[in-house]
Amino acid sequence: MTENQINQLDPYVKVVNNQYVLQLPENNNVSQSMVTEIEDELSQVNADIKSNGYTIKTNDKTYGASTSAAFGVVLAKSSSNPTIKRFWWGIRVYMRNKTAVNKEIAEFKNGQAIAEFGSLVSPPVGVTLLSILAI
Asked: Which residue from 16, 32, 54, 71 could staple onto 49, CB 3.0 to 4.6 Å apart?
């Protein structure tokens, strides 16, 4: 999914009984294939939430640990205290400085961190967006 698609659909992804639910208005311009893709992804994320006993925070629609503790090996070497948040569409990594962001982006581009990071995070199949931001 692209960032534009996420921004377009995020207002319609609601939290109902600790599960993500797509609630599109009747007159929408989202293709049926995109709806199917999103519903499949939500189903996988919801299964992860249920099996791990996570709680979705309704204020920002994140779930799971909002910390680097579970991912320390991968990110500790590149940033002082990164924060990781899980969303229905994937994860977002917040780092404390631009040097750390640039280093992490370079490692992802050359594939160095992808296998390591992917095995720890295990996002649902099809969820591909990862945001790395300096805060």
From this structure: 54
pTM: 0.69
Q: Which residues, other chains included, contact 95 with Cβ-Cβ below 8 Å and sequence gap of 6+?
A: 75, 78, 79, 82, 101, 104, 132, 133, 134, 135
Instruction: List Cα–Cα distances, 15 to 58, 86, 107, in angstroms.
Output: 6, 14, 34
Task: Give the contacts of 116 (CB within 8 A, at least 6 positions apart).
Answer: 73, 74
Identify residue 79 by its one-letter amino acid code.
S
Which tens digits make up the pLDDT trace of 100-128?
A: 777 767 766 665 554 444 444 444 434 44
Rounded Cα–Cα distance for residues 94 and 55 (Å): 21
SS3 83: strand
